[in-house]
Write a structure and sequence with these properties.
Chains A, B: InterPro entries: DinB-like, DinB/YfiT-like. Chains A, B: This is DinB-like domain-containing protein. Chains A, B: Residues 12-150 form the DinB-like domain. The structure is a homodimer. Chain A is mainly alpha-helical. Chain A has helices at residues 5-12, 15-23, 28-31, 42-55, 57-64, 90-110, 115-119, 132-156, and strands spanning 121-124, 128-131. Chain A has one domain: dinb family like domain (Four Helix Bundle (Hemerythrin (Met), subunit A)). Chain A has a two-stranded antiparallel ribbon with strand order 1-2. At the A-B interface, helix 1, helix 2, strand 2 and helix 8 of A face helix 1, helix 2, strand 2 and helix 8 of B.
């Protein structure tokens, strides 16, 4: 499947609703437990997605399409949400993510990105030169990957409860 | 996290809505492609979930709680949905899954399952003796695992499009 802006937006615009449907009104056992150690709970993942909306995807898109001479991205702090002082509750985070995503997709659509724009490049601080198409593909995959992570983390809460079925449930082995 | 019937139902009753939010009105490139070879597309996974509603979870629950002498489960055909003749489209499958799940959860709640019931056992044809609590835990994890699978399969459609970011996107390596 080749990159298409519209097909990426199809995913990006539904992620907030998917997360609300998946996580709203669940017992905290499902949303606030992790996979052990320093791994992330579903709650922490939503905080991470919010941080991406604020500092990563659209900011980098704007930089790639700007007239700036130095198109090196600011590093993205993948742990920012773990350090935030005043903690919001999960419903607040889900609302915040939805609002930020809507603003960012409105901005993205307003850019009227052309085929040539998609080949424009920026410099990732660790990975080097990347195209706008790669950035927008990454944004899309990042959403899907974190939905997969959230459901895997939730599944693992019952790891000891499934008895001998653990053998058949590959999600518990990832 | 220990098994609780109500916490399991929290997950089971939202899965159809999660799948509809995730998959409705998407381009077929997202829903009908797989991970290569004999792997399953999101469309195939929904068919598999339907087959489970028809032949597995509630049927086995009823057998465990029955007065039958032989409580050996019928084997579950994990590939049944791949062999079905008249193919339904994805919106039809999503509706069918939702309707079957609703019927099955209504039946489950009507059983008024007690703590003692949860320790009752049946015989899995390959795994041997299993408890009702393990069966219901497995049903719950099975839902979550297949949502994780669906989003992973979708993410992989952009595997070649993310460029050097592939290194950071663990969902593309599973």
């Amino acid at each position: 499947m080749l990159f298409e802006l519209q097909k990426s937006i199809e995913i990006l615009e539904r992620t907030p609703a998917v997360l609300k449907t998946l996580l709203s009104n669940l017992s905290p056992d499902w949303t606030h437990n992790n996979e052990g150690g320093e791994t992330w709970s579903p709650y922490a993942v939503v905080g991470h997605l919010i941080h991406g909306e604020k500092t990563d995807w659209i900011v980098r898109t704007q930089l790639i399409l700007s007239q700036e001479e130095d198109k090196t991205f600011q590093p993205f702090d993948r742990f920012a949400q773990l350090n935030e002082g005043a903690k919001k509750n999960l419903p607040e985070l889900l609302d915040e993510f939805q609002a930020l995503r809507e603003i960012n997709l409105t901005a993205l659509k307003a850019m009227n990105i052309s085929a040539a724009n998609l080949e424009a490049t920026g410099i990732h601080p660790a990975l080097g030169k990347v195209t706008l198409a790669q950035l927008l593909s990454c944004w899309t995959v990042h959403d899907l990957g974190h939905i997969a992570q959230i459901t895997r983390v939730m599944a693992k809460q019952y790891k000891d409860e499934v008895g001998p079925w653990i053998e058949y449930l590959s999600v518990l082995h990832k």
